[in-house]
Write a structure and sequence with these properties.
Number of helices: 1
Number of strands: 39
Largest sheet: 4 strands, antiparallel
CATH class of one domain: Mainly Beta
CATH superfamily of one domain: Immunoglobulins
Strand content: over 45%
CATH architecture of one domain: Sandwich
Structural class: mainly beta
Shape: globular
Distance between the termini: 11 Å
Radius of gyration: 25 Å
CATH topology of one domain: Immunoglobulin-like
């Protein structure tokens, strides 16, 4: 038995050495508009040269808001900020893409002149922010056209997805294909045969440039909607459409879609199930083959209440990763990450919690080279959230967890996450300052994760293993410094923050289960983690 424990100890210490790897913040960028009002972020991407491109709306200072495109260089400096030049008032942007040369493409909706409704625009900017052209799409008749997203196909064409209809409650799904010069190649509309409202959320393309669009459809006169997925070939012909309704015939909302390496289509969203005596939202994930046949359906539910997905990713082995928010059975939501294998079997579930009994959540997810990166927010203050980035390996081990807090201790939130060509992590979202939201971008140098021992510590922890008390010595903790202890699932089990300078800290571990933990210390510019073992039993 002792030999078994030693082997397990070595294995878990290896995991903890991985978890001790840390990111280093290279820079942060905050934009406050001219009117000192609220900014809103609608998209972020990183080009092949490491520049960060943002699309947003900003307060102009004239009781109005403007759509802006912002370019930051790899050092975090603003290179330029530009506004689309259209033939009418610009509405909200919805998507931004870049090509291999660094040119920028932005799609959105605007109020077209002479038309009492909205139309779709697509603009191209060069690397210096000069607008090269603007293209428009307007459906026949005085109808509403709203862009909802944009993506590349494998031939270098731009696919804009959206909705079209005479009213917002009678829309159909719309797909418009442009070449890289802005020429419209075709447009296609899908209307569910029940002739009710079709809503569009996201899209993906496969290797043959078929287009898959997910969204929702109101199939009757009730207020409830179902998942909807349809396939168009590369010419815009609809090949099939599928809907999904929960067994209770309540509301379902599709959130995200992705195509795996086998050409299968995976969608996820929130779907109503039956909780402990009342309806709750569950995470429904469905896999279709390329001909629209359902391969499997899986549902994730918490023990007592709601779970809501926000993003999806796949790896080279067609494993599926979903991020979102899930009620933890007490009084709060946690940031949840779920892994399914290619057959739809749940592999692991990981939760990240803040120190406060409040809402935590995941907003975006990225898979890259064996690691799963998530972005979101955690509640470490009774009133405000901190922005969150975290990473797991494919086995679900927490590699690192970073929280970003503004100097004002106001609301901070990462909504988008990306990596540049050098492997740096860029997270973007909002930071609240005095009840107004500003744009936020933070660039992290991602630490290399290896089995090498960490550098010599400037503080010591003893005894380790501990049977009831940990002592921290060798570091002067500044006012505002904090100590956190996390289990291997990333759940915080201990937290304290100092209101004054302190040293020679004692931590009671009597309420912790036996096992491995990660102790994190933040003090001024100092940040380090150490593995600790709680072992009360012989």
């Amino acid at each position: 038995m002792k030999a078994f424990f030693t082997l397990g100890l070595m294995s878990l210490l290896f995991i903890l050495k991985q978890a001790a790897a840390q990111n280093t913040e290279q820079w942060n960028f905050v934009l406050n508009g001219a009117g000192d009002g609220t900014e809103e972020l609608f998209g972020m991407t990183v080009d092949t040269f490491g520049n960060t491109i943002l699309i947003a709306t900003t307060d102009t200072g004239f009781l109005d808001y403007a759509t802006v495109i912002i370019k930051l260089n790899p050092q975090g400096n603003k290179v330029w900020m530009s506004a689309p030049n259209l033939n009418g008032p610009v509405g909200e942007p919805v998507a931004v893409l870049t090509d291999d040369s660094g040119n920028i493409y932005v799609a959105g909706s605007y109020d077209s002149p002479g038309n009492l409704s909205s139309d779709i625009y697509l603009v191209k900017l060069d690397t210096a922010g000069n607008q090269l052209w603007a293209k428009y799409y307007s459906s026949p008749g005085n109808v509403i056209d709203d862009a909802k997203g944009m993506l590349w196909d494998n031939a270098g064409n731009l696919i804009v997805i959206g909705e079209t209809g005479s009213t917002v409650s009678t829309t159909d799904a719309l797909v418009v294909k442009f070449d890289s010069a802005g020429n419209q190649l075709w447009q296609s509309v899908y209307s569910n045969p029940v002739n009710k409202q079709d809503q569009v959320e996201a899209a993906a393309v496969d290797a043959a440039n078929n287009i898959y669009v997910c969204g929702n459809v109101y199939v009757d006169t009730s207020r409830y909607r179902d998942f909807q997925v349809f396939k168009m070939d590369s010419s815009g012909t609809v090949e099939w459409a599928r809907t999904y309704n929960d067994s209770m015939n309540y509301g379902d909302q599709c959130t995200a879609i992705i195509v795996d390496n086998n050409g299968d289509i995976i969608v996820t969203g929130e779907s109503t199930g039956w909780g402990p005596g009342y309806p709750v939202n569950e995470i429904a994930t469905i896999k279709y083959d390329a001909t629209g046949n359902v391969q499997w359906i899986t549902r994730y539910e918490t023990s007592t209440s709601t779970a809501i997905p926000s993003g999806i990713a796949v790896d080279e082995n067609d494993n599926i990763y979903i991020v979102g928010s899930a009620y933890d059975g007490t009084t709060k939501f946690d940031c949840i990450t779920i892994k399914y294998n290619a057959s739809g079997n749940e592999q692991w579930v990981r939760l990240i919690q803040g120190t406060q009994v409040d809402a935590d959540g995941g907003s975006d997810i990225l898979y890259d080279e064996g690691k799963i990166y998530v972005a979101g927010y955690v509640a470490n203050n009774s009133t405000y959230d901190d922005a969150l980035v975290a990473a797991y390996d494919v086995s679900g081990n927490l590699l690192y967890r970073e929280e970003w807090n503004s100097a004002q201790n106001d609301e901070d939130d990462f909504s988008y996450i990306a990596k540049d060509e050098d492997g740096n992590l860029i997270a973007a979202g909002i930071v609240e300052k005095f009840n107004d939201d500003d744009l936020l971008v933070v660039k992290f140098s991602v630490a290399n994760v290896s089995i090498n021992e960490p550098e010599a510590a400037t503080f010591t922890v003893y005894p380790n293993p501990t049977s009831g008390e940990l002592n921290l010595q060798g570091l002067q903790f500044e006012a505002g410094a904090d100590i956190g202890i996390f289990n291997l699932l990333g759940k915080e089990v201990y937290f304290t923050q100092f209101s004054h300078t302190a040293s020679n800290i004692k931590i009671q571990t009597n309420n912790m289960e036996d096992g491995m933990y990660l102790l994190r210390v933040k003090s001024g510019g100092y940040y380090q983690t150490k593995p600790v073992i709680v072992q009360r039993k012989n």
